[in-house]
Amino acid sequence: MPLQYDSEFWSVLEPLVPVLSKREPLSLDNIKAGREAREAGMRALFDRLDICPEVEQRSYQVKATDGYIISVLALTPTVSRSDPGPCLLHFHGGGMILGSAEIQARPLAQLVSATAVPVFSVNYRLAPEFKGTIPVQDGYAALLWLNSKAKEFSVDPSRIAVLGESAGGGVAAGVALMARDKGLKPRLAKQILLYPMIDDRNMVANEAMEPLAFWKTADNATAWTALLGDQAGQPEAPISYYSAPARAPSLADLPPTYIEVGGLDIFLQENVKYATRLLAENIPTELHVYPGLPHGFEMIAPNITTAKKANENRYRAILGI
Hints:
The protein is of the alpha/beta class. The protein is built from ten helices and eight strands. Helix 8 (about 270-280) links the parallel strand 7 and strand 8 (about 285-290). Helix 5 (about 135-150) packs across helix 6 (about 165-180). About 45% of the residues are buried.
């Protein structure tokens, strides 16, 4: 049976096809223009969402391990909680080469409004200007900072989870691996990985899926090359598994995990394989595959039935921290 979009999703997508079809592939030869175009598209999608006045925003400055200053956007309920509780350390999407916490502020505010769980979103450094493990190092520095500020933010340090979409899901997974390896205490409570970008070896297109995919295999190759250089995609290359978590030789001792991915996402196989490996290590793992939906489906069509169900599943996972 040929692959096809979910019918409800297609009803939303069809009017947008003329605009989306004009989108240029990402290129490292003109990264600035590519960033600006893709980020403008992301802003247009997120600006459709309601503003949440019950969620306040504040930016903090955090020193990375090399002394570089990164910013963390805190989104918290305006009504403070009396007892320490859970929180999310978030990493935005954007293929490791674009995006920001501020661009995703509206969907993050909706998450905070729905769950009353504060979010701290990290503006990790982007490729190609910053390569290798730097995004994950930034994320881990933010995690240490959040642990050190737990009392100030009314956070229970044993109930901190990492959350990320797409490239941010890859950073979140890398931070979880780094926290495990460094023996961080308290341990991370959970990792919530939304269609995470975790395997640089994903360089060959699925010919049946590619025409329906939103994040194309060529874009994936460009993004990984931006982060890892010419070694990206080479199975025997000495690439850190913090950058490409699917390369980790062991997934033992990682926190309970939530993973979701669309059935028309080029990350489908790497995400399902990662979940299977976690289960083989007896890590409590929840996996959702949404048939007929591409990468970032809930951004395009936030009001379709499956997008609402996906949000319900995410919120339930968050409330279980």
